[in-house]
């Protein structure tokens, strides 16, 4: 395997690892906190919000936005590390 | 000035702006027509994507639906935003690197087959047409209530405006009008929300006001008060739903994956310069969308509380003027069943005397809260911006599917660039006319189908694209079989339970308790499974296709989008 290809494979592996971590969080806040464990979290109250309800209608959306910007940062760094930035 | 004058003024000004932009940014080549020349900045693309995405349904209907569904409405909030995470992480950067004009372009090249391309075109057309008809209807509703023209005239005016800038400007015109439309619609959504939040809770931030205490000196939390009012009238508690967990899960998933698979959203990422910009503009788009999507549930809570307080057990004769106004549109109806002259709004269908259309909650909200006339007019302009921007994006997908994917790539490969541009314009015109027809004569199924467009997108495109990027050995046989099984199973389930075909059935017969809206999740899984199984028994994709896959995984050297 050529050096160029090794580099591409290594880059791809790191990329996929980031995707797994970020998508795990994506799943945890929406399907986890907002749906599957909603009832349990609802016993906790922050201000007027029951926590599970808050995750379903507010919190998960904030986390989604943060996730994409974290991804943008991570990938820009990764591109630089492998010399793929332009 | 009266509401009417304000409305004419604001709608007139915004329309003049859209037309001005269309003339300034008309398309001269197919490249400009399909991908706006490929040099749109991430910020402009993010704004355009947000306007493209937020349709009449997001602006007019969503807060109302949540008002009546309470927690169950969360499926739309999470579903329509979470899809952007999938889009940003799994699709946008790679499709941008691939660098073609349309989604069927990717499917056709990646799966080296005309059949795959044609299947993708058909899926794109089914999804886009069902969606666009709903937008034209939204335009009609806004016109008929606020400008007091006939609903059909409203649809025709909307058609002419969209026709003008979509046909003339193509993607370039659409992009820059959408930037303007985003500004109009977000301003129009936020102003009344902030007003009402201050009115009810004293907190100017609706997202916080929703969780604050009510302004009436009782010190009670707004959500607790609404829970109490709801149960008193026999409804489910607002903050807990009545849908099953599995169904909420399935619907949310189908909406997320469907969002990521909608062709009119995906093509927006072909318009930026670099892979980096595609990632960034997905983030900006979601941020801009989140402003509306986190405000909407707050509006739902304010509006529902206001509504119950205003009408419940009050005399019909004492109703404010907005009540009569909306009665004439047919979106609000009162039937004094027990002849006591009072409005009983309760969960029990036998005793309930008030029927309310979802859409009223946003459209009439400023009137219910007694806000100034210009705010009410602003909502009309915002609703129109939301509907028109989405309609234009969808029409572009329809016209490029026909002129580029069918005429250029399948039937007449040696057509000139000019010829193709004309074909695109003619296709866009025909599409507007068909969409307008459905807006004026909405077949009963349109409303039902709009929500299902997501299921169809989830069942067809999403697996084919994801496998195309992340699974190098996926071949054409697998992808085509997967898409066909996915979309057909979704269509069959939808027809059975929504239109009573194939023996029909009720909620009790739903497979594992999953509603047709959530079945997209199942159909998507079927697509994945069938694709992987079929692949095992058919030849590997050719060497050069596998090289394409390796190439799209590397962000550098994206070049510009091309048609060849």
From TrEMBL, chain A:
The chain crosses the membrane at residues 16-37, 52-72. Keywords: Membrane, Transmembrane, Transmembrane helix. The keyword Thylakoid does not apply. InterPro entries: Na_symporter_ssu. Residues 9-84 form the Sodium symporter small subunit domain. Signal peptide: none annotated. Pfam families: DUF4212. This is Putative solute:sodium symporter small subunit. It comes from Kriegella aquimaris.
TrEMBL record, chain B:
Gene3D superfamilies: Sodium/glucose cotransporter. GO terms for molecular function: transmembrane transporter activity. InterPro entries: Na/Glc_symporter_sf, Na/solute_symporter, Na/solute_symporter_CS, Na/solute_symporter_VC_2705, Sodium:Solute_Symporter. Pfam families: SSF (PF00474). It is a multi-pass membrane protein. PANTHER family: NA(+):SOLUTE SYMPORTER (SSF FAMILY), SODIUM/PROLINE SYMPORTER-RELATED. This is Cation/acetate symporter. The lineage of its organism: Bacteria, Pseudomonadati, Bacteroidota, Flavobacteriia, Flavobacteriales.
């Amino acid at each position: 395997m050529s050096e160029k290809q090794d580099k591409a494979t290594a880059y791809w592996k790191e990329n996929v690892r980031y995707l797994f971590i970020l998508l795990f969080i994506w799943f945890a806040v929406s399907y986890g906190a907002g749906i599957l464990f909603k009832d349990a979290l609802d016993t906790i109250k922050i201000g007027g919000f029951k926590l599970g309800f808050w995750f379903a209608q507010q919190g998960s959306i904030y986390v989604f936005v943060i996730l994409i910007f974290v991804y943008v940062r991570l990938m820009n760094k990764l591109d630089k590390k492998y010399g793929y930035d332009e | 000035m009266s509401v009417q004058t304000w409305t004419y003024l604001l709608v007139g000004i915004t329309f003049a702006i859209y037309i001005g932009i269309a003339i300034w940014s008309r398309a001269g080549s197919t490249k400009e027509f399909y991908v706006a020349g490929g040099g749109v900045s991430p910020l402009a693309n993010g704004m355009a994507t947000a306007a493209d995405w937020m349709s009449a349904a997001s602006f007019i209907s969503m807060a109302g639906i949540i008002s009546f569904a309470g927690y169950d409405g969360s499926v739309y909030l999470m579903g329509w935003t979470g899809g952007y995470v999938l889009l940003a992480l799994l699709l946008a950067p790679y499709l941008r690197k691939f660098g073609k004009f349309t989604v069927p372009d990717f499917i056709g090249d990646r799966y080296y087959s005309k059949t795959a391309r044609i299947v993708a075109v058909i899926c794109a057309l089914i999804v886009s047409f069902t969606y666009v008809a709903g937008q034209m209807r939204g335009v009609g509703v806004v016109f008929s209530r606020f400008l007091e023209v006939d609903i059909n005239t409203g649809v025709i005016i909307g058609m002419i405006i969209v026709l003008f800038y979509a046909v003339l400007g193509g993607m370039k015109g659409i992009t820059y009008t959408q930037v303007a439309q985003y500004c109009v619609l977000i301003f129009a959504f936020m102003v009344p929300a902030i007003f009402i939040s201050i009115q009810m809770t004293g907190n100017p931030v609706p997202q916080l006001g929703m969780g604050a205490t009510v302004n009436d000196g009782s010190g009670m939390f707004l959500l607790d008060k609404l829970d109490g009012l709801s149960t008193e009238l026999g409804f489910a508690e607002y903050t807990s739903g009545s849908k099953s967990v599995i169904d909420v899960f399935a619907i949310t998933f189908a909406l997320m994956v469907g969002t990521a698979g909608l062709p009119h959203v995906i093509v927006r990422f072909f318009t930026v310069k670099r892979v980096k910009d595609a990632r960034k503009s997905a983030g900006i788009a979601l941020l801009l969308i989140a402003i509306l999507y986190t405000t909407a549930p707050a509006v739902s809570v304010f509006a529902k509380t206001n509504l119950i307080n205003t009408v419940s057990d009050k005399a019909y004769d004492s109703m404010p003027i907005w009540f009569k106004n909306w009665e004439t549109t047919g979106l609000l109806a009162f039937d004094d069943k027990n002849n006591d002259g009072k409005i009983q709004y309760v969960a029990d269908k036998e005793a309930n005397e008030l029927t309310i259309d979802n859409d009223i909650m946003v459209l009439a909200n400023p009137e219910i809260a007694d806000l100034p006339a210009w705010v009410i007019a602003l909502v009309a302009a915002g609703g129109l911006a939301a509907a028109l921007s989405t309609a234009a994006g969808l029409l572009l997908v329809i016209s490029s599917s026909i002129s580029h994917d069918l005429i250029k790539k399948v039937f007449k490969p040696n057509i000139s660039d000019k010829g193709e541009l004309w074909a695109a314009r003619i296709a866009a015109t025909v599409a507007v006319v068909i969409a307008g027809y459905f807006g004026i004569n909405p077949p009963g199924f349109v409303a039902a189908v709009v929500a299902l467009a997501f299921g169809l997108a989830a069942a067809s495109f999403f697996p084919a694209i994801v496998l195309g990027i992340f699974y190098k050995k996926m071949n054409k046989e697998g992808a085509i079989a997967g898409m066909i099984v996915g979309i057909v199973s979704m269509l069959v389930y939808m027809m059975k339970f929504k239109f009573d075909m194939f023996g029909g059935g009720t909620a009790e017969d739903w497979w594992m308790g999953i509603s047709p809206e959530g079945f997209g999740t199942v159909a998507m899984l079927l697509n994945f499974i069938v694709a992987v199984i079929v692949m095992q028994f058919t030849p590997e994709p050719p060497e050069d296709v596998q090289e394409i896959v390796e190439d799209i995984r590397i962000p550098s050297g994206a070049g510009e989008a091309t048609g060849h």
